[in-house]
Amino acid sequence: MSDPRVQAQALIVQAQEEERYRLARLLHEGPAQLLANTTVEIESYLRLMDVHPQAAREGLQSLLIELQKGLGSVRELIAGLQPPLLAEMGLVAGLQKYAETFSKQTGIAVELKGWEQLTERLPATAELAIFRIIQEAVENIREHAQAHRAQIVLEVQPTQLIITIADDGKGFVASDTPAGRRLGFVAMRDRAELLGGNLQVFSDPGRGVRVVLTAPLQIRRTPP
């Protein structure tokens, strides 16, 4: 029988490779493609400059708009890798911004419920781990669920937080779980264990997916 530690390490390496592939695809389809197109267009407009300066000027103006949109996409990608509001304003503000950006990019409506209960900051490591778990769950919805709506629901109990990420997508049978999604679940469970919590996944075909994270409630205390 294989060593469980070796299997776990192999899954971690595979998850890292999946994430690198996802980032490479996003960069190729976004900034890299934009820069390639821009190079071709600038060369064309330079040739036009002497014979049809007005057409060249109009083309460059359109190109400027495309580049501005591309810059916005790059900033959104960077924000996804390192959410700027998380350290400054906390988990709730970071999630609100993330959900807003995700909905705008994908057309999938994301609703946050119950987060007004979390009025104090958590330790930075806990906030980042919870954010990454939610982010992975929501990215799975984008990649696999064929959903129209999603909810991120918080329940605050005296000693723990219960966070549920649910969608109205196609769901799945456990034996048919895509490899990328399965690795995502492994990564989420690992983060949950590091928090001292646990993570469960529930799904049936045609009834969407529910990811339930239970984590200890540890409020960050400001020294007097």
Q: Count structural domains.
A: 2
CATH superfamily of the largest domain: Histidine kinase-like ATPase, C-terminal domain
Distance between the termini: 55 Å
Envelope shape: elongated
Q: Measured on Cα atoms, how large is the radius of gyration?
A: 22 Å
- Which structural category do the helix and sheet elements fall into? alpha+beta
Helix count from the secondary structure assignment: 6
How would you state the average pLDDT, rounded? 82
Uncertain regions: pLDDT < 50 for 5+ in a row? none
What order do the strands of the largest sheet run in, or round the barrel if closed?
1-2-3-5-4
Helicity level: 55-70%
For the record, what CATH class of the largest domain applies?
Alpha Beta
> What's the CATH architecture of the largest domain?
2-Layer Sandwich
Do you know the CATH topology of the largest domain?
Heat Shock Protein 90
Give the percentage of residues in beta strands. Answer: 15-25%
Helix and strand element order = HHHHEHEEHEE
What's the short version?
With 224 residues, the protein is an alpha+beta fold. Helices cover 60% and strands 16% of the residues.
Write structural notes for this entry:
The protein is α+β, with helices and mostly antiparallel strands. The protein folds into two domains: 77 residues; 129 residues, Histidine kinase-like ATPase, C-terminal domain (Heat Shock Protein 90). Helices cover 60% and strands 16% of the residues. The protein contains six helices and five strands; from the N terminus they run H-H-H-H-E-H-E-E-H-E-E. Strands 1-2-3-5-4 form a five-stranded mixed sheet, covered by helices on one side. A hairpin with a 5-residue loop joins strand 4 and strand 5. The longest helix is centred in the N-terminal third of the chain and has 45 residues.
